[in-house]
Amino acid sequence: MSNVNEGQPREQWGSKLGFILAAAGSAVGLGNLWKFPYIAGKNGGGAFVLIYFIILFLVGFTLMLAEITLGRATQLNAIGAYRKIRKSWAWVGSLGVVAAFLILSFYSVIGGWVINYTMKSFTGALHVTDGQALGMMFEKLITGTTEPILFHGLFMLATLLIVLGGVGGGIEKSNKIFMPGLFVIIIILAIRSMTLPGASEGIKYLLVPDFSKVTIGVVLDALGQVFFSLSLGMGCMITYGSYLGKDSNIPQSSIIIPLIDTGVAILAGLAVLPAVFAFGFDPSSGPGLIFVTFPAVFAKMPLGSIFEVMFFLLVLFAALSSSISMLEVIVAYVVDEWKINRKIATLLTSLIIFLLGIPATLSFGPWSHITILPGRGFFDTFDFIASNVLLPLGGFLLCIFVGWIWGTEKAIKEVRNNGKISFQWAGIWSFLVKYVGPVAILIVMVRSFL
Ligand code: TRP
Questions:
Q1: 361 Cα–ligand 1 center, Å
Q2: Helix/strand/coil percent split, the chain, to 5
Q3: CB under 8 Å to 23, separation ≥6 — which residues?
Q4: CB 3.0-4.6 Å disulfide test: which of 101, 210, 396, 408 passes with 430?
Q5: What sections of 195-249 are H helices per DSSP?
């Protein structure tokens, strides 16, 4: 359709591994390292993890394959992909682009905190064992005005610079460094944490289910977490899939990427929770878990400052490899559809996201009295609308689109590429995308809003 860069071939991933690392880099992020341990902690540990796995099997793999296939088939951005197949569905892609603006604006605020804490870990400013003092330090950072805006700006700047480098030179290259580094660090940290005296309590907490805490709210949290963690429902995987060549093995990638993502989330839980128990902290202390509890844990650990620097660098890498994927959703759309050159598109959209993030960060401090949705300031409103409404809705509509409008037969044909790629679970996938996915998402969303 409107592939404006005609004559100029669309950029492609340099290699199979390059795509998998970039997509896994998108998936692995603050959702795994910051959110998963505390959300699991809050929701009954093992019971949450079990529900997460069920949703992952029913919906996660299914939507991953659907998004990547839609992208590769159309070779277009999130909006263009829908439009090329059915004009009247382009608005569904727009929901994703809106979600990308919203999520990136508050994601970058947290990314800014991470840069700040990475610097603090280098200078030894976090070498404090008193949990309360660490709590105050965190509070002081996030409720400030200039400092958090500045660090949010720095995080956006880093994101922008990578995306400016393009798909192969910027995104793929940086992920080839980020991802292996991340695996090594998280494994070292998990081993360190699990071998602390008293760590077994934390391992049990993460893995032994407590069903008394399971409510419909917990199921919605798990659904939202699967979407957020796998980067689904926004057209992110449509966009990354659009840079794939026809010889790529989508079924294989759609299994490997969620497995890496879930593996890292579990490893993050195993790195955070046993240490939290070993040092007697509260596992359900919420968003502050990695910023408040963890530094206290490191301060009490032999060689703690080294592990601490490694940890915050890990979180920073993971956050950047995710934020670039969100910016790419927007940039790909602007470049494909508005005929604007990549550089200007990147600069302009980053500036808008930076500005959107300012009210989000101020809502922790000077603007904490302003509510947008009942009981929610800017930050929580952006998060709620994007993560709990737009992503599940985007996922639901994607199922309907691929299952019924485009049709699973055409999708399977695209995946198989004239029989060159084997796709043995095509029948199961087709059933999941047509029936199980949309019904499950609808039930959870409707029930939680009633
Ligand atoms: N998955 C990332 C994380 O876990 C965040 C993210 C990147 C994302 N791209 C996305 C979330 C697209 C939703 C949609 O931190």
A1: 19
A2: 75, 0, 20
A3: 68, 231, 237, 240, 253, 257
A4: 408
A5: 200-207, 216-229, 236-241
- DSSP state letters, 387-401: IIIIHHHHHHHHHHI
Helix (H, G, I), strand (E, B) or coil at 376: strand
Residue found by looking up tokens 């603090």 in the block: 120
Three-state DSSP at 323 gives helix
CA-to-CA distance for 271 and 307, rounded, in angstroms? 11
Distance CA 230, CA 449 (A): 23
Question: In angstroms, what is the C-alpha Rg of the chain?
Answer: 21
Q: Find all residues with CB under 8 Å of 133, minimum gap 6, and list them.
A: none
What DSSP letter does each residue of 163-217 carry, written as one string? HHT-IIIIIIHHHHHHHHHHHHHHHHHHHHHHTSTTTHHHHHHHHSB-GGG--HH
- Residue to mutate, 98, 316, 326, 391, ligand 1, most ligand atoms under 8 Å from C-beta: 326
C-alpha to C-alpha distances, 358 to 100, 157, 188, 325, nearest whole angstrom? 16, 14, 36, 21
pLDDT over 90 (residue 448): no
Q: What digits encode the pLDDT tens for the residues 354-388?
A: 999 999 999 999 999 999 998 899 999 998 898 88
Amino acid of residue 416: R
- The burial of 316, by beta-carbon neighbours within 10 Å (0-12 exposed, 13-18 middle, 19 or more buried), is given as buried
Q: What is the pLDDT of residues 157-207, one digit of tens each?
A: 999 999 999 888 888 988 888 888 888 888 988 998 898 888 999 999 888
**The pTM is what?**
0.92
Q: Which atom of ligand 1 is nearest to the CA of 322?
A: 7
Q: Within 10 A of 357 (CB to CB), how many other CB atoms are there? A: 27
Q: How far apart are CA 290 and CA 120, in angstroms?
A: 14
- Identity of residue 177: I
